[in-house]
């Protein structure tokens, strides 16, 4: 049992028995529940950029994992830009400034950004540990003085930056969070299981759009070179059983670029960079009907 409806109607997610082995979790839930195959899930074709936006809709432009390689990206028409993290290589202030300048030149009415594991300077606990334990792993980051990065978020003047927080834009409630399962000890890494679930439990019900850096289990989370599923099981259960956003946008696994749906939530892996860090995957546009109160 990974989700229970309590007496007051609230759904509580608990740690899945397969949490620590997502490939095994995928196989188990697929064999026993067909959870990741039709009719429960489908691939979705991206809409062409010249598709007219339906009346009463907002057009979201999704990008992720641009890794300081924004120069050649052709950006399509839209209302709101969503960037799901890894906008730099190492979170150096110079990279953040360059990214912010790029954002400033884009025509969208709103731009919403979260960090990924590469935005090292945005993770204060990571920076504190880096100085103590692993001085030579990221020399250019270790060389920074605290005053260079203490306020690195403030360099993002051309967007709304979300970190375990939400914003309402054009009536859509959007929540953003940077955490991913531990992998090689980068920023915003946490162990699978309760540590990550504690972060997902901060996501309020009633969110329309969820932005995470990494994928949930089973949705655009396949790493071919390792024949592994690497999505987070607790994130999937939180999305499908508790929060139920209309759109879950992420990146993180560059090879997983693409769109799927479970019939209610659309899952977009918008990784711009390929596995070889070439920024060649086009931005993905997605139209959502405006919430009725806006
Ligand atoms: N087996 C896993 N591979 C992973 C994981 N997270 C990322 N990756 C691989 O690295 C690239 C690039 O990721 P980045 O964060 O360095 O930009 C990604 O496309 C995967 O191939 C993981 O948790 N497990
Ligand atoms: Mn990346
Ligand atoms: Mn990443």
Amino-to-carboxy terminus distance: 38 Å
Query: What proportion of the residues form beta strands (DSSP E)?
Result: 15-25%
> What's the CATH class label?
Alpha Beta
Q: What is the total number of structural domains?
A: 1
Major β-sheet, in short? Answer: 7 strands, mixed
Would you list the SSEs in sequence order as H and E? EEHEEEHEHHHEEEEEHEEEHEEEE
- In spatial order, strands of the major sheet run 3-16-17-15-12-9-8
Alpha-carbon Rg, integer = 18 Å
Average predicted local confidence, pLDDT:
96
CATH topology type: Purple Acid Phosphatase, chain A, domain 2
CATH architecture: 4-Layer Sandwich
Low-pLDDT stretches: none
The percentage helix is 10-25%
Number of helices: 7
Write the layout of secondary structure elements.
Layout (H helix, E strand, L loop, with lengths): L2 E3 L5 E3 L8 H12 L8 E3 L12 E7 L16 E4 L9 H12 L5 E4 L10 H10 L5 H4 L3 H4 L10 E2 L3 E5 L2 E6 L2 E2 L7 E2 L3 H7 L8 E4 L9 E2 L4 E2 L3 H11 L3 E4 L7 E4 L4 E4 L14 E6 L5
Parallel strand pairs: 4-5, 5-6, 6-7, 9-12, 10-11, 12-15, 15-17
Antiparallel strand pairs: 1-2, 3-16, 4-18, 8-9, 13-14, 16-17
Question: Can you walk through the features of this model?
Answer:
This protein starts with a strand and ends in a 5-residue tail after the last strand. It has a single domain, classed as Metallo-dependent phosphatases (Purple Acid Phosphatase, chain A, domain 2, 4-Layer Sandwich). It is an alpha/beta fold. It contains seven helices and 18 strands. The strands form five sheets. Strands 3-16-17-15-12-9-8 form a seven-stranded mixed β-sheet, with no helix packed on it. A five-stranded mixed β-sheet has the order 7-6-5-4-18, with no helix packed on it. Strands 1-2 form a two-stranded antiparallel sheet. The longest helix is centred in the first third of the chain and has 12 residues. The model has no long low-confidence stretch (mean pLDDT about 95). Helix content is about 20%, strand content about 25%. The protein binds the ligand Nc1nc2c(ncn2[C@@H]2O[C@H](COP(=O)(O)O)[C@@H](O)[C@H]2O)c(=O)[nH]1 and manganese (II) ion (2 copies). The site of one manganese (II) ion (MN) has 5 residues, from loops.
